[in-house]
Amino acid sequence: MNDSRALFLMFVLLLFSYEIQAQYPFEKFPAILYKEFEDWKEYDRLEKEQRIHFTLTIPDFYTNHDTVTIQLTGFQDQMDTSLIRVFRNKNLIGKIKEPMFFISTNVKDHPVSVADINGDSLDDIKLVIPYMGNGIASLNVRVIYFFQKTDGSFDKISFLDKMDGPERDFNADNNFEIITMTLDQYESHSYWTFNIYNFENGTLVNQNQKYGYPIMIQFLYRDNYAVTNKISAEKMKSFERALPKNFDKK
């Protein structure tokens, strides 16, 4: 083998090795698999009623094949309060105020995801709605979960995040960990901070201590997946969040 071919093969192997390693530490754990539904129906009532509705029906959601319909209602000139209605078949089972806005551009291109997130054999619902910001703020999303209860109703959990990736099962118990991503400052540098949670007893419970989190990864103007060595593990604990940012529970 001549030298140029050997160098080329070495470059390919190094590149392949980098691609394998180019992931966040938690991405080695199994990701949840969702069924996705995208058939949003829009009902524009802005001119007459100063509101707009978006409706999506999930067929055969319940074990008896009943449907669930999610209706999001946004209001003109109200960017911090909207309504979410949940129907079982045609019966209203939930009406919730949500500290978020709903418009065509942040709803219609984003699916509703369905899976059993917390391992109780009941399907749950997840929505990820962008805030439509600029620059780093363009990463801001509202993550909205509906965790199904045994009576067929739901606990609603939502929060501000900068990540809409899948949940991961850290310990193979089928209760998937929810991973949040925030941008924090420390000694003139910016870091992505990752906290982890489980859904337990109607709310989110921080799981950092169990798994050695939070972890912090320096924000750079290039891909970076390595936990920083500029901040001690003990100091990282000071960036722990008991609950995610702008947490809301109903």
Structural account:
By secondary structure, this protein is mainly β. The protein has one domain (25-249). It has helices at residues 3-21, 46-49, 104-107, 208-211, 233-236; strands at 35-37, 41-45, 51-58, 68-75, 78-88, 91-98, 112-115, 124-130, 141-148, 154-161, 178-186, 189-200, 203-206, 215-218, 248-249. Strand 7 (112-115) and strand 8 form a beta hairpin. The longest helix has 19 residues, at 3-21. InterPro entries: Integrin_alpha_N (IPR028994).
What does the secondary structure layout of this molecule look like, with pairings?
Layout: H1 3-21, E1 35-37, E2 41-45, H2 46-49, E3 51-58, E4 68-75, E5 78-88, E6 91-98, H3 104-107, E7 112-115, E8 124-130, E9 141-148, E10 154-161, E11 178-186, E12 189-200, E13 203-206, H4 208-211, E14 215-218, H5 233-236, E15 248-249
Antiparallel strand pairs: 1-7, 2-3, 3-4, 4-5, 5-6, 7-8, 8-9, 9-10, 10-15, 11-12, 12-13, 12-14
InterPro entries: Integrin_alpha_N (IPR028994)
